[in-house]
Write a structure and sequence with these properties.
Elements (H helix, E strand, L loop, with lengths): L12 E3 L20 H12 L5 E10 L5 E5 L3 H14 L17 H10 L11 E7 L5 H21 L4 E5 L1 E7 L5 E9 L2
Antiparallel strand pairs: 1-4, 2-3, 2-5, 3-4, 6-7
Helix pairs in contact: 1-2
InterPro entries: Cyclic_Pdiesterase
Pfam families: 2_5_RNA_ligase2 (PF13563)
Protein name: Phosphonate metabolism protein
Length: 193
């Protein structure tokens, strides 16, 4: 419905489901390949401590990259799962990794990255479901214009189509991501109790 909304048609958005699994990121960082098996082992063990749970989402937002996301309402158990994963595996990360370009100019996210190898952990954790992506790459000036217009169009869309979505989180997974944090290859998935 959003991708077909006439107010949003000018923004050249495409669904990402065909190429990327729908997911909520718990911890986004880089690991040396030599740590892959150990990382999978840690996450498998952690997954046995967690149970399936329900999340709720209420509104859409646009990222500075042009991706459209459904924001997840704050949920203590989801925060606990994310925090537990970070605490358990951050020591395996690549300490020489570069901060993602989308987070490099935010002081809070930069500090989180320096400490944990991720811009979105603990108090900076902002769970969401990404489902629309730009169809093309624009110049910085054109992108900034489009993002501002997209943000306004999404605000109008949210007002016209208020909704609450519920979903059950039933697994945790490990994957390889692209530059924007979208999963391009799943390495392991573990069902929650």
């Amino acid at each position: 419905m959003l991708a077909q909304d006439k107010d949003l048609a000018d923004y050249n958005l495409k669904p990402i489901f065909d190429n990327h699994p729908l997911h909520i990121t718990l911890y986004l960082t880089q690991y040396p390949l030599k740590n892959t098996k150990l990382l999978i082992s840690y996450v498998k063990k952690l997954s046995q401590q967690f149970h399936a749970f329900t999340i709720k989402a209420q509104y859409l937002t646009a990222a500075p990259s042009g991706y459209v996301m459904l924001k997840i309402k704050p949920q203590l158990y989801l925060q606990h799962v994310s925090d537990s994963v970070v605490r358990s595996v951050h020591h395996l990360r690549d300490p020489l990794a570069n901060i993602p370009s989308w987070a490099a100019h935010n002081p809070q996210k930069l500090n989180s990255f320096k400490q944990y190898g991720s811009p979105n952990v603990f108090t900076n954790y902002a769970p969401h479901l990404t489902f629309l992506a730009p169809k093309e790459i624009y110049s910085v000036q054109k992108k900034n214009q489009l993002i501002q217009g997209l943000a306004n169009a999404i605000e109008q869309f949210n007002q016209k189509h208020p909704t609450t979505i519920k979903a059950t989180v039933s697994a945790v997974a490990i994957g390889i991501t692209d530059e924007q944090g979208q999963i391009i290859q799943e390495l392991a998935t573990f069902a929650l109790k």
